[in-house]
Design brief:
β11, α8 and β12 form a beta-alpha-beta unit. The chain folds into two domains: 130 residues, Rossmann fold; 138 residues, NAD(P)-binding Rossmann-like Domain (Rossmann fold, 3-Layer(aba) Sandwich). The mean pLDDT is 96. The protein contains ten helices and twelve strands. α4 crosses α9. It is an alpha/beta fold. The longest helix is centred in the C-terminal third of the chain and has 18 residues. The structure holds NADP nicotinamide-adenine-dinucleotide phosphate.
């Protein structure tokens, strides 16, 4: 009998990859008789039910996704990471805490790919929630970070928020032209440019040279190879897609709820299989 329920709340939720990933992990470890992960669509006008109802029904914890990630800061005691990035994606009802596993998922995947971070010059593209998590994680690990965003004002605003929430100072918002001469060793794409169905889109402005020898980490995971990844590879650089980050942010939540070491390879392979299944159905 299932004794331990976890899941994801959001709206819409039917495309979430989390149930298949977590349930495959439970199965691989022989925990599927006791643990179950499911997806719950909660309309935004009844947002508070997103947490009250599952909690009332004995859920251990939840993942929280769009549009509730900011609202979820009020649903539990946010830890330092959640406060820094201004969003919660994982709740644990047993101790009433909320965290954001995107940061460790991102940094963990860079480390798994042997990408140097400490002391490196890193260009972060974007100024949304993913960019804020990236900047926070990279600065925490000792990188020198510069942000470029299509809308400059939004980048300045994100950096102001990071100063208030995490005391981060000295990160500049620049234009792409200004950054090329700075020669970053790592470029992180935290924009949604290039994500399906806008597969022909890239956040890199045509005519601006791609820095020689730079590694790209593209948080976009569908398609597996984005236009920007192709551009970087054509310029002789290394390009890594965002699927590993997705698996690792889920794995961090799995560890919080179960206390068990998550089977990363199972989670990663399940995501790969599920995404190619969905691609072939389109
Ligand atoms: N791999 C993972 O586990 C993982 C985790 C989190 C997020 N992500 C991915 O990261 C991406 C961003 O997520 P988010 O939550 O931060 O989204 P968001 O808050 O909506 O921010 C979107 C960002 O993309 C920029 N952008 C959108 N279209 C663009 C274009 N055509 N050219 C240049 N910039 C463009 C926006 O610039 P403006 O400010 O100018 O509009 C903004 O900075 C998504 O693709 C998401 O799937 C992946």
């Amino acid at each position: 009998m299932v004794q331990n329920r976890v899941g994801v709340v959001g709206f819409p939720i039917e495309h979430s990859l989390s149930p298949v990933m977590h349930n495959a992990a439970f199965k691989a470890l022989g925990m599927d008789g006791e643990w179950l992960y499911d997806a719950m669509a909660i309309p935004p006008d009844i947002a508070d039910y997103a947490v009250k109802e599952p909690q009332r029904h004995g859920y251990i914890g939840l993942n929280v996704t769009i549009p509730f990630k900011q609202k979820a800061l009020e649903w539990a005691r946010p830890d330092e990471i959640a406060r820094a990035v201004g969003a919660v994606n994982t709740l644990d009802f047993r101790d009433d805490t909320g965290t954001n596993t995107d940061v460790d998922g991102f940094i963990g995947d860079l480390q798994a790919h042997d990408v140097a971070i400490t002391g490196e010059k890193v260009l972060v593209l974007g100024a949304g929630g993913a960019a804020r998590a990236a900047v926070y994680g990279l600065v925490r690990e000792g990188a020198e970070v510069v942000v470029v965003n299509r809308t400059m004002e939004r980048a300045s605003n994100m950096l102001f928020q990071l100063t208030i929430s995490a005391g981060i100072q000295g990160v500049k918002a620049l234009t792409l032209d200004e950054v090329v001469d700075w020669k970053p060793s790592l470029i992180v794409n935290s924009t949604s440019a290039g994500m399906y169905p806008q597969v022909d889109s890239s956040p890199w402005i045509t005519g601006v040279p791609i820095p020689q020898g730079a590694t790209l980490y593209d948080m976009v995971y569908t398609p597996a190879k984005t236009k920007l990844m192709q551009q970087v590879e054509s310029a002789g650089g290394r390009a890594i897609g965002g699927l590993g980050m997705l698996a690792r942010q889920g794995a961090e939540a799995f560890k919080i709820w179960t206390g068990v070491e998550p089977p990363i390879d199972v989670m990663l392979n399940t995501l790969r299989t599920e995404l190619s299944k969905r691609e072939s159905q389109e």
